[in-house]
């Protein structure tokens, strides 16, 4: 349903590397800066009003605007970004070693793959976090472990993966929140005790629909039917908590708290096969706000 590319970037840390408190935010900021530096022709501070706004790779990836048409479009002109950053806990806290970063590119974002690789490599070279810890990009591998690029080599072709949903079984479905899930209602984040099945269900439908509408030629989802399905979804067990993380926003020029729901819950999806399919796809493309920070990573299993 949604073509995606999953890449693993491996960096060497010859001078050691101390993991930042919010590494995904540090990487996202460094990546955005490097991407704009590499692609921006006019050096305008804002992309809005730039004559190249709708042809440049930087706003397409990092300051994404929603298409004016599309079955999933709802309110505002912003679209979800077509990339997701993940920072596995693999690197040693200090000393010589390696640092790994994962990135998911959705749909049409794949055409900017050379720019993405260059920008993330430059982000590492220029330094990550407040301490500007410099890293050297050694290789880029796809989801199968095949090397697609290393310094001095040509970029190998990368075939997108089709995120076709798999069968989850007739019984209850366990959802593990691998990273904090941030959903909002009327501008406010939804607390663990206020989260309900229909809200979670339609968030998954909307996420998949918006990504498909903006980056994959249209979602082909029946939103009326899926909204009816979403109303039937129930949380039959929950073990949830709230987790706050803090990051510095360059745009807002201040330290902000960015929290989300963590833990595990069990859903009854027996009357909602379409919703189950969207949740399954969200295992790859994440769910809710802050996906570019690695938020909203979920894992499903038959309970």
Secondary structure category? alpha+beta
Shape: globular
State the end-to-end CA separation.
25 Å
Strand content: 25-35%
- Overall helicity: 25-40%
Biggest β-sheet strands, sense, barrel: 6 strands, antiparallel
Counting H and I runs of at least 4 residues, what is the number of helices? Answer: 6
CATH architectural group of the largest domain: 2-Layer Sandwich
Low-confidence stretches: 91-95
Whole-number average pLDDT?
89
| Name of the top-level CATH class of the largest domain | Alpha Beta
Return the string of H and E elements: EHHEEHEEEEEEHHEEHE
Tell how many strands the DSSP assignment holds. 12
Radius of gyration: 19 Å
Q: What fold name stands as the CATH topology of the largest domain?
A: Alpha-Beta Plaits
Number of domains: 2
Characterization of the model:
With 303 residues, this protein is of the alpha+beta class. The protein has six helices and twelve strands. It has helices at 23-39, 57-62, 113-126, 197-215, 223-230, 273-285; strands at 3-13, 83-86, 97-106, 136-142, 147-149, 161-162, 173-181, 184-185, 188-189, 234-249, 254-268, 298-302. The longest helix has 19 residues, at 197-215. It is globular.
